[in-house]
Amino acid sequence: MEDRSPLRYRVVYAPAATPDDRAAILAGLQSFNRRFVPDPDFQPLVFLLRSSPDRVAGGLVGETGWKWLHIHWLWVEESARGKGFGQQLMQAAEREAAMRGCVAAHLDTFEFQALGFYERTGYTVFGTLENYPPGFRRYFLSKPLQ
Predict the structure, then answer these.
(1) What is the pLDDT of residues 40-52, one digit of tens each?
(2) What is the reported pTM?
(3) 145 Cβ contact list (under 8 Å, min separation 6)
């Protein structure tokens, strides 16, 4: 049977997709999602660990939305590790998220990163992705906020 629809769809590999191409995909997804859930009102959340006024020695980057804190990245330089700065960054982010009305937090980490650290700060694993990257695991964790 011949397709007589006026539109012809085709899949096109786009290694040089423009920002407008990507924005069109995101806008379409967001439009679909809004039929089911409210706008998440994502708000950035960043805390820095400074060793001097102009030098970043670590930090936490995340966002809040849908009453959750999502921690994207946490890093503390080698010379500052083991001194409680990672825990201070986590606590500061969780406090700010709670003030924003968040009820829980989630993050992910690789097996060779900081799983034990996150578990010691109250996070529990709810999922594992095997062999990502090859030879390792990626863990997904969450924690209720007070």
Answers:
(1) 999 999 999 999 9
(2) 0.87
(3) 69, 94, 97, 98, 102, 103, 104, 105
